[in-house]
């Protein structure tokens, strides 16, 4: 752990745990209890074996191209891409960004940070075969495998990242999703299973269900009928599975995003401009996405999105200091 991370961990532990204990002590009503179980991402102890700070000048990503595209043509192109430090990997479902490269930290980043990570794509669908439809690549933090377990929400996990947003005039010129910071979590869902045959009937069976909440950076481009560009965060999702608008992005540059996962199964979304630690004032929403109660946290990841037309690159996104924390 660097000196910077040690100082941050002490501050988060002192501030975050005090706030969490206050929230959990109150329970005057169901709605009040739900709101008070929200806790600030970054509270508690840094999980040092996962996440990254990109400070190693020798940081390297080995892409093993071409990327996997199981979601399009059911092809897993192995071996998949991996970071040399073992902390990141290519998702087999959608594949990795076309550019994964350590760069110098843009101005205004975290104090003492000299390295960050550039993520960018041209072909977000099939490699070299433009679809002219919006697709996305995944860049996944290796949390589950390195810890060799999931994290129960009783441990109160959270994940935090910094994201550099270039000036909007440098974004890909289209309306829609541009980038996302998301989590992979688990719950137990009861689903109906219909048996075949003349006397077929449905039966209910509890199954382990994966789902992927998160925050998307969206653009409504002025050339698509808007008087001015409008950027905002889109939250995935409400209890019916619908995405909803979170907060306006009124300035570019560095932003801090975070999600926390409370023992009652709610997911809490936080964001603010700048690189300062999140606080309780930065809460955007608390939700049970898809009506599920989250039981276990597996990992977090990023989406890089573009129009996949073979000519237009995605926006150049830069991330720094993505980490996982435990408040218990």
Describe this structure in words.
It is a single chain. With 328 residues, this protein is mainly β. The chain has a single domain (46-189, 202-326), classed as Jelly Rolls (Sandwich), CATH 2.60.120. The chain has 4 helices and 19 strands. The chain has helices spanning 3-25, 30-36, 70-73, 144-147; strands at residues 45-46, 61-62, 82-83, 88-90, 99-104, 115-120, 135-141, 151-152, 157-165, 176-194, 202-211, 214-220, 230-236, 244-248, 253-261, 267-273, 283-287, 296-306, 317-326. The strands form 3 sheets. Strands 4, 7, 8, 10, 11, 12, 13, 14 and 18 form a 9-stranded antiparallel β-sheet that branches. The model is unreliable at 10-32 (pLDDT under 50).
CATH fold type:
Jelly Rolls
Main sheet? 9 strands, antiparallel
Distance between the termini: 20 Å
Number of strands: 19
Shape: globular
Number of helices: 4
The CATH C-level class name: Mainly Beta
Helix content: 10-25%
Please name the CATH architecture.
Sandwich
Residue-averaged pLDDT, rounded? 89
Uncertain residue segments:
10-32
Tell me what portion of residues adopts beta-strand conformation: 35-45%
Computed structural class: mainly beta
User: How many separate domains?
Assistant: 1
Q: How large, in whole angstroms, is the Cα Rg?
A: 20 Å
Question: Which keywords apply here?
Answer:
328 residues, mainly beta, Jelly Rolls, 4 helices, 19 strands
């Amino acid at each position: 752990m660097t000196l910077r991370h040690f100082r941050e961990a002490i501050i988060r532990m002192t501030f975050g745990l005090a706030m969490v204990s206050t929230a959990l002590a109150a329970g005057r009503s169901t709605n009040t209890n739900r709101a008070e179980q929200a806790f600030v991402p970054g509270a508690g102890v840094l999980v040092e074996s996962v996440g990254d700070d990109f400070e190693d000048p020798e940081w390297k990503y080995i892409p093993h191209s071409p990327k996997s595209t199981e979601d399009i043509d059911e092809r897993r192109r192995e071996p998949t891409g991996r970071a040399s430090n073992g902390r990141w990997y290519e998702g087999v479902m959608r594949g990795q960004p076309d550019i994964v490269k350590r760069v110098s930290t843009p101005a205004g980043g975290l104090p003492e940070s000299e390295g960050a990570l550039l993520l960018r794509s041209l072909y977000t669908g099939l490699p070299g075969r433009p679809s002219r439809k919006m697709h996305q690549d995944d860049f996944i933090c290796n949390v589950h495998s390195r810890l060799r377990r999931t994290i129960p929400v009783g441990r109160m996990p959270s994940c935090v990242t910094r994201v550099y947003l270039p000036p909007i005039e440098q974004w890909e010129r289209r309306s829609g999703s541009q980038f996302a910071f998301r989590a992979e979590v688990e719950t137990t869902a009861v689903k109906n299973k219909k048996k075949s045959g003349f006397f077929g009937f449905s039966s209910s069976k509890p199954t382990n269900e994966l789902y992927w909440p998160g925050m998307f950076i969206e653009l409504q481009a002025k050339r698509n009928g808007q008087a001015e560009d409008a950027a905002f965060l889109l939250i995935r999702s409400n209890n019916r599975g619908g995405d909803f608008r979170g907060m306006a992005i009124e300035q570019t540059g560095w932003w801090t995003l975070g999600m926390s996962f409370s023992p009652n199964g709610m997911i809490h979304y936080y964001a603010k401009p700048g690189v300062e630690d999140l606080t309780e004032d930065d809460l955007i929403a608390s939700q049970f996405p898809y009506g599920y109660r989250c039981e276990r946290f597996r990992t977090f990841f990023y989406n890089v999105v573009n129009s996949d037309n073979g000519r237009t690159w995605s926006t150049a996104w830069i991330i720094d200091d993505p980490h996982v924390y435990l408040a218990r």
